[in-house]
Specification:
Layout (H helix, E strand, L loop, with lengths): L1 E6 L7 H5 L7 E5 L2 E11 L2 E10 L1 H5 L21 H10 L1 H4 L7 H4 L3 E11 L3 H9 L5 E8 L9 E13 L1 H16 L9 H9 L10 H8 L4 H15 L3 H4 L14 H16 L3 E5 L5 H7 L6 E6 L2 H11 L6 H4 L2 E5 L14 E5 L10 H12 L3 E7 L4 H7 L27 H15 L1 E8 L10 E8 L5
Parallel strand pairs: 8-9, 8-11, 9-10, 11-12
Antiparallel strand pairs: 1-4, 1-5, 2-3, 3-4, 5-7, 6-7, 12-14, 13-14
């Protein structure tokens, strides 16, 4: 089975640095299914293609099989169809690239590049529609061509295999983790026994994108071979990582952006990162970092030289550390990030002096009577130059309710527009209430404040998420 990775980001031969495989020679590696070969059909400054060819050993394939029918040992598609065997080969041969490591050129690993992935024989139980549902929310353009059962007999129709081309501008590490997780999901089968350790594999590979994926529940179920206990564990951990109710993870994400749908959690992080870039911040606090979704995005940008994730929950920090793979992170990257346990309603002197602080979907988890204490701790004691705050717009909830008509999970009862999106929310504010609070904080603490929408802005009820940017004002002397 074959997979090719092509880039035209000049100099395209930098792909060799990212993959840790030199374009000038072919290399072979033993893997559990047989032998994986890596070679470069084309390696020029304007275009470079790396190919991974997996040669399956038929004897190894037969050993340990538990097919329901005897002929399964002799008649099967495993040597030819891209599925879990190819996924395992990717993780084995390109392990450093999957982790975002590039010792020779670390800036390359942190830079998105234009990539084209081709899988000539993708096993897909779900057809073209499933491929698009899985890859499009991750930023890929998808093109598929069905492989006929027999080109000589058109009446037999098409097989379940697709000649698939994915195109997108992504980090190479993200592209490889997408393939590692989603190839066996599309195939709907694995060539090895699924045990409890598969939960950790899924969460490590899906860190930063799986929790926000609209098909996260289906991905978890198929990746974990529909083993209910494992799926429940994975969904609970994903909920911790993205500040979402476990039950809500089983529901589809409401797409709020026309064209290419993008989960609201992703849109929030994109908006926050844009504000931080514009502020010129280099030392950043993620206050209430939870499972570390934003921390991963911050680490991906070299301009942020010091990143501190703060949360009151020790468990959330453990989830963040696992998702970021701190224990495997390179020394230079590891020096950029610190995780610390602290409550945002108490003054912490160590948080003073930073360029920017982010409270992304945090304030609504604080009892309203404790907000003055949070104000003092963040805007009075820590006093960063820029503070970014996001919170739900309760007025928009009627749109979620309309799209989720007849469904009660993920929203509490309480009247149109009054249901809370998360069970732990102490409150959710209208736009007027948020502006009143933010303007009061800015006036009392010497900040200017401006407001930005996050997500598609509805002409009647506004955006699903509201964002405030506080800029500290220098006192004239």
């Amino acid at each position: 089975m074959l997979l090719t990775l092509t880039t035209t980001a000049e100099p395209a031969t930098d792909l060799g640095f990212l993959l840790h495989k030199h374009p000038d020679r072919a290399q072979s590696f033993p893997v559990t299914a047989g032998t994986a070969h890596v070679f470069y059909p084309r390696a020029e400054p304007g275009e470079c293609t790396a190919a991974l060819l997996l040669e399956v050993d038929p004897i190894t394939l037969v050993r340990g099989r538990s097919d329901a029918f005897t002929l399964g040992q002799y008649v099967n598609d495993r040597p030819y169809a891209a599925g879990s065997m190819l996924a395992v080969a990717i993780s084995s041969v390109f392990s450093s690239a999957m982790k975002g490591r590039c010792a020779a050129r670390p800036e390359l690993a942190a830079t998105p590049i234009l990539l084209t992935v081709r899988i000539p024989t993708l096993s897909c139980r779900g057809g073209d529609d499933l491929v698009r549902r899985l890859f499009t929310p991750l930023g890929w353009d998808v093109s598929t061509t069905p492989v006929p059962l027999d080109p000589q007999v058109p009446d037999w129709g098409d097989s379940r295999y697709l000649d698939t081309v994915l195109t997108g501008e992504l980090l190479l590490s993200d592209a490889l983790t997408h393939l590692y997780v989603l190839l066996p999901v599309l195939d709907g089968a694995k060539h090895y026994w699924v045990g409890e350790d598969e939960v950790e594999k899924l969460l490590r590979a899906g860190a930063g994108w799986l929790a926000a994926h609209p098909e996260r529940a289906m991905i978890s179920e198929r990746y974990l071979a529909h083993r209910r206990a494992y799926v429940a564990t994975a969904l609970e951990r994903l909920a911790d990582a993205d500040d979402t109710d476990v039950d809500a993870l089983a529901e589809p994400v409401v797409a709020v952006q026309p064209g290419r749908p993008e989960p609201l959690a992703v849109q929030r992080r994109v908006a926050v990162l844009a504000v931080l870039r514009a502020s010129g911040a280099r030392r950043v606090l993620d206050l209430g970092c939870g499972g570390g979704a934003l921390l991963r995005d911050l680490l991906a940008e070299p301009s942020f030289t010091e990143i501190v994730g703060v949360d009151v929950s020790a468990r959330a920090l453990e989830v963040a550390a696992r998702g970021l793979q701190l224990d495997r992170m390179g020394e230079r990257q590891r020096e950029r990030i610190t995780l610390r346990q602290s409550a945002l309603t108490y003054t912490d002197a160590s948080l003073a002096g930073y360029d920017a602080a982010v409270l992304m979907e945090v304030i609504e988890h604080v009892d309203e009577e404790r907000l003055p204490a949070l104000e003092q701790a963040v805007f009075g004691a820590a006093r960063p130059a820029t503070v970014v705050v996001t919170t739900p717009n309760v007025e928009y909830n009627v749109r979620f309710e309309a799209l989720e008509a007849g469904r009660s999970r993920g929203m509490e009862a309480g009247g149109a527009g009054k249901g809370k999106r998360h069970a732990d929310h102490r409150f959710e504010w209208t736009r007027a209430q948020f502006r009143e609070w933010a303007s009061g904080v800015a006036g009392r603490r010497g900040y200017a404040v401006r407001f930005l929408p996050v997500g598609a802005e509805d002409p009647e009820v506004g955006p699903p998420t509201q964002l405030a940017v506080f800029d500290r004002q220098e006192v004239a002397r």
